[in-house]
Amino acid sequence: MKRLLLLQKAVKESVSIPVIAANFIRSPEQAEKQLEEGYQDMVGSARNFICDPHWALKAKEGRPEDIRRCIGCLHCIESFISNAGVGKPGECALNPGIGMEKAYFNPPQIGKGKKAVVIGAGPAGLTSAIELARRGFSVTVLEKGEKAGGQVITAAAGHLKNKLYWCIEDMMTQAEKLGVEFRFNTEANKDNVAALKPDGIVIATGSKPVIPRSIKGIDRDNVCAAPDILLRKVKLENKKVAVIGSGLTGLETAENLALDGNDVTIIEAAPSVAPKAWFQHIDDSLSRLNPLGVKILTSTSLDSISDGEITVKTESGNNETLPCDYVVLAVGVRPDKSLLDEMQNITVNTVIVGDANHGGSIGKANQDAYRELGRIR
């Protein structure tokens, strides 16, 4: 960011016309500061107004805390390209009203006198709570953790990823202003949910890391899941580490490990890196991983784990042994549907959303929550 600001200032000092610049400006305070310090004459932005079309009005009215900040996730650009071919509008990871503003800003007031319970305070849970409150429901959120965020807490722990948590902070601000009640350190069960006498229930319990039990040695003490590394529950230094899986979580985990001085090798069964990820995210990650010396083996699968080494199966079908002190699993997640049956017994108006429905990004979780809420009456 500093380098970009210096480039802007150099342009401004070299020309005699006003300079408008667009960079990662996300708050009115930042915009004012860059104007005052002479980096530019005018502030330009695009994604800010996709994420929050009332950004400028909230700034003018002195309500910066109400601004829904863009987290730079590129879901907008990805969706614009993918949706155009099927006749759908683009999307924003945090603004579910894109392309259907009339309906979004005039939500049906069907919740007057009704109660709703949301289980889980990740992105899908928070979106659900906000939208139900906007529709008139009295909403209570039960979250087993000590704070909101779900898997975004893990994602935001990656190197240079802290801005991802902005979305949780902003949704919490909006939810609290709408009167949503939050009960943290509270694990939902049929008794405490039923006691609230809800007319509708949203299950947003997220997902759990996949542990491939078929792999010999998977239960060894030197094996953990990627979130343990990102959240610093396991701290490794100067070790030979194999990260299994090259999705975005795997790439971010590998980066954290390499920055801690570990010798890191990524093992990917597919023929290409992060086969389901958007190419800009892949390019961004690789631009930082390559200088750190992280090795990536594609078309290679983990076969077994033993003392000081792992055995992998290569594209040719041969087994090879690699030196390895620690194995980190980043092979995906599995939806947590464990509460579905007992919640449906409390009310038929029960929906399951976000990663608890099917795994995906912040944007997919929020879009899924917004769509599914139409089933709660």
Structure in words:
The protein has helices spanning 2-14, 28-36, 47-51, 55-60, 75-84, 101-104, 123-134, 151-155, 166-177, 190-194, 226-230, 248-259, 279-289, 340-344, 362-372; strands at 20-21, 42-43, 115-119, 138-142, 181-183, 200-203, 207-209, 223-225, 240-244, 263-267, 295-297, 301-306, 309-313, 319-323, 326-329, 333-335, 350-352. With 377 residues, the protein is an alpha/beta fold. Among the domains are: 109-208 and 334-375, Rossmann fold; 211-331, FAD/NAD(P)-binding domain, CATH 3.50.50. Helix 12 runs parallel beside helix 13. The mean pLDDT is 94. It has a 5-stranded parallel sheet with strand order 5-4-3-6-17. Strand 1 (20-21), helix 2 (28-36) and strand 2 form a beta-alpha-beta unit. The protein has 15 helices and 17 strands. The protein is globular and about 60 Å long.
Walk me through the topology.
Blueprint: H1 2-14, E1 20-21, H2 28-36, E2 42-43, H3 47-51, H4 55-60, H5 75-84, H6 101-104, E3 115-119, H7 123-134, E4 138-142, H8 151-155, H9 166-177, E5 181-183, H10 190-194, E6 200-203, E7 207-209, E8 223-225, H11 226-230, E9 240-244, H12 248-259, E10 263-267, H13 279-289, E11 295-297, E12 301-306, E13 309-313, E14 319-323, E15 326-329, E16 333-335, H14 340-344, E17 350-352, H15 362-372
Parallel strand pairs: 1-2, 3-4, 3-6, 4-5, 6-17, 8-15, 9-10, 9-15, 10-11
Antiparallel strand pairs: 7-16, 12-13, 13-14
Helix pairs in contact: 7-9, 7-15, 12-13
